[in-house]
């Protein structure tokens, strides 16, 4: 297995290329003008990736953008190969007048992001098989334990992870969304959530995550890679 990179090392290595580190993946967006151009972008980045495309690259093709994700499919962390590929893809697109960008502060509806569903549970091992079966999900690469997250095998739906509870809780929801945003997008997203009527429940773990609630108490977290550990 290749040597894995720390969160900070991965983020620092690609931020100036318009990529952002999100939950063990590198993600960027390529603005385009049509579906035809989007498919041309996809073909170009696949060619630039070469033999690594099938194992590391995903492309979400839309008429106005192509969202690119680099993440090893057989291990849970990034390596120097992913960093090299990010630089290679950005260079290949610059050569044809296109750019890779995180879409922060550009007037588009939102930045690149990854959404997760979090389920609070007293017995994670007991409920995990149900969610895996009902969603048609599978184990995350390199994480197949009875309490580990589960993921959409075709990469369309949000990952689901399980948060250990130590006692029953009846006064709040037990399923919430985690919205992982670029670290430099977090202040903008926080301000938007508060302006839209949300309230800050806790910032005690910031900048790893901030907990918000709507006016009825339903919670969501804005998360980043920062502040989780030294890596």
TrEMBL record:
Domain of life of the organism encoding this protein: Bacteria
Gene3D superfamilies: 2,3-Dihydroxybiphenyl 1,2-Dioxygenase, domain 1
Domain Glyoxalase-like: 117-223
Pfam families from the UniProt entry: Glyoxalase_6 (PF18029)
InterPro entries the UniProt entry points to: Glyas_Bleomycin-R_OHBP_Dase, Glyoxalase_6
Transmembrane segments: none
PANTHER family named among the record's database cross-references: CONSERVED PROTEIN, HYPOTHETICAL FUSION PROTEIN
Name of this chain's protein: 4a-hydroxytetrahydrobiopterin dehydratase
Originating species: Micromonospora parastrephiae
């Amino acid at each position: 297995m290749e040597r894995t990179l720390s969160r900070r090392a991965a983020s620092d290595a690609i931020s100036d290329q318009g990529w952002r580190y999100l939950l063990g993946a590198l993600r960027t967006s390529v603005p385009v003008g049509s579906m035809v151009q989007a498919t041309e972008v996809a073909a170009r980045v696949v060619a630039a990736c070469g033999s690594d495309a099938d194992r590391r690259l995903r492309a979400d093709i839309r008429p106005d953008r192509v969202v690119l994700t680099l993440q090893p499919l057989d291990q849970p962390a990034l390596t120097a190969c992913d960093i090299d590929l990010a630089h290679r893809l950005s260079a290949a697109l610059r050569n044809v007048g296109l750019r890779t960008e995180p879409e922060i502060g550009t007037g588009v509806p939102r930045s690149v992001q990854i959404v997760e569903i979090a389920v609070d549970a007293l017995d994670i091992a007991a409920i995990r098989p149900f969610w895996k079966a009902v969603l048609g999900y599978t184990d995350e690469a390199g994480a197949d334990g009875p309490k580990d997250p589960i993921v959409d095998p075709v990469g369309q739906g949000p990952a689901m992870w399980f948060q250990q509870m130590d006692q029953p809780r009846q006064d709040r929801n037990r399923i919430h969304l985690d919205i992982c945003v670029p670290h430099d997008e977090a202040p903008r997203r926080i301000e938007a959530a508060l302006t839209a009527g949300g309230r800050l429940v806790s910032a005690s773990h910031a900048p790893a995550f901030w907990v918000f609630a709507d006016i009825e108490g339903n919670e969501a977290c804005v998360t980043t890679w920062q502040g989780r550990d030294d890596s």
